[in-house]
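Subject: two folds for Thursday's group meeting

Dear M.,

Sorry for the delay on this. The cluster queue was jammed most of the week, so I only got both jobs back this morning. I'm pasting them in the order they finished. Each block is the input sequence followed by the predicted structure tokens. Could you check whether the formatting survives your parser before we put anything on slides? The first protein is the one we discussed after the seminar.
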Amino acid sequence: MRWENLTDGPAGPAALFGAGAVVTRTIDTPEFRGITFHEVRARSIVNRVPGASRMPFEWTVNPYRGCSHACVYCFARKTHSYLDLDTGLGFDSQIVVKTNAPELLRRELAAPRWTGAHIAMGTNVDCYQRAEGRYRLMPGIIEALRDRANPFSILTKGTLILRDLPLLREAAEVAEVGISVSVGFTDTALWRTVEPGTPSPAARLNAVRTLTDAGIECGVLMAPVIPFLGDSPAQLRATVRAVAESGATSVTPLVLHLRPGAREWFTAWLGEHHPHLVERYERMYAGGSYAPTWYQRMITRQVHELAAEFGIGPARRGAARGTAGPERPEGPEPAGATQLTLL
């Protein structure tokens, strides 16, 4: 890979970390078998969301790049191409770890220019993926935010967030804290094929229950709703019912979007597992990365009607702020690329 794209040198002050700051480790244990970690010393950790974005947050923190959750649809796959890493298996198994994230965040929050704005986490790749079990970056990150009484939100598919429940409760005493768990469906057969590295939907919803029982409000981002595979009335009903039973404070649907990088990987998976759907997907996504507006509105209406039936409302605007949708990935984008939005 061309790490020089991101280190001191031709990239100048825009470099993401200093020269000679990469340490590559392969750990041969069952939980990390096949995964390579690239440990880096980041030069900055608080990232600004582009001004044109409609996201309800302006700043993000991402301690990792790449994700062992291995979700075949992950929009962030394209970011690995900026490192000359493969956006398919490479994204799932070549994980960049910003080992100095906690200390760097503490320094940036203490800077005179920082005004205490809301910070969203988990909106690019999951900050509670398996790597977090080894590197334990999130406790230091939460502590830094707690100590500055800085509001923040976390979006995750990882049940490892429960490890940090005491810290989250401490932070919630001094600042606004929004937690959301991503559960797009409860179909276990679908889960095993499209999200093979994640905890099961049931385990995630159990985490929601644990968080809410501990007094931490937790919403569910029902994402992605996958056309023709996870969008039947029966599947939507089962998922919303399970979300309501988990004690979630809100449910917000998000239909599958297929950006470049993710689109190619998902299409290859579709051709292997559901070849009869390839042509239907080509028609549905002929207009770009998003499903047609009519389809998105139909799914949203159905989910909100089910939510009302089961006594759970949609997310309030600005609540659980990490749930509105994924942010623009770090690094350069092709000309004409647009910020991801909920609908």
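Second protein, same layout:
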Amino acid sequence: MPQLRALATIAACLWASIVVAAAAGPPAPAAFVDPLDAPARMTPRSLRAPAYALAVVDAEHVVAVGPRGHILRSADRGKTWEQRPAPVSTDLLAVQFPSSTQGWAVGHDGVVLRSTDGGLNWRRVLDGRSLGAMMVSYYDKKGAAGDPTVARARDEAKRMAEEGPTRPFLAVHFRDEREGWVVGQFNLILHTADGGATWEPWLDRTDNRDGYSLHAIRQAGDQVVIVGELGLVMRLDAAAGRFVRIETPYPGTWFGMAASKDAIVALGLRGTAWRSTDAGASWKALATGTHAALNSGVLLPDGRLVLVTQAGEVLIGAGLGASFVPMAPMPGLGAAFDVVSMETDWLLVAGPSGVQRLAMAPAAR
């Protein structure tokens, strides 16, 4: 009997709890915290989370960025990784180091982050909350009388100010520690000549009247090249201070580039790759052997060209005109978003499960 009374008491307490909870109503939802206001969560799971982009810092160090503000850094060429703090939890899509100390990362919500210590620490220098107003002020001061290009740029800046932090930066490139560009959706492009202390909109300095998105920007010898939607390829005309369009035979969207001092390789849909060795004056299609979208590529010092695809393929070409041989499928790779090389016959590939370190067959001698 005592046991039955005890069970009855427990049941009565549970029922009372249920009644009180029902009277109080459902629990209040957690308050929304804007990713621009929330630092990235520090968690061991970030080491296995997707990595969207990679940047070599120096001979030993490399940095990866990904969703929710995750930044990873390796001090042993990608063998091991540690998460580094980030001031935002918005997705980061691209990263670059023009020197062993100065680094830049960009992403959603118009975010631009800077590191001055080789990727150990990061601070925010721009975001989409102030970006539109800054651009409107710039174009109001510049004036648009008699210049339809500036007028269009001012109108676009006003739209961005009304929309708020909705447009992502998709790529970043600095020629050195002081001069660089960040580029993104719908012809979004900013330039700095003082290491990010001040920024100047360049919406009126691109041959991109239709406002196509800018997906990648790279250095190719003395040229700075941008690729984007619907066949858009532009190179910097330094004397004019603007990006001028290069005509190519391909009307589809470009997602990325591989570049060296001697060549540009533009990468697009359905395995499409075209290369130019004369600063874009002429182009030749490459036989990649895949129908998957090409996300990124790297030209190795020995002349080999490595391409990675949305299907997780890693393709190796002996040279710019050679056919490509796929590496053996990598378990769990799924997709490949970016690729870099830090040592002979080894690759680092960013994908849905983080960064994988892959061994290539040695180059033929």
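Two things I noticed about the second structure. Confidence is low (pLDDT under 50) at residues 1-25. Residues 2-24 form the longest helix (23 residues).

Cheers,
T.
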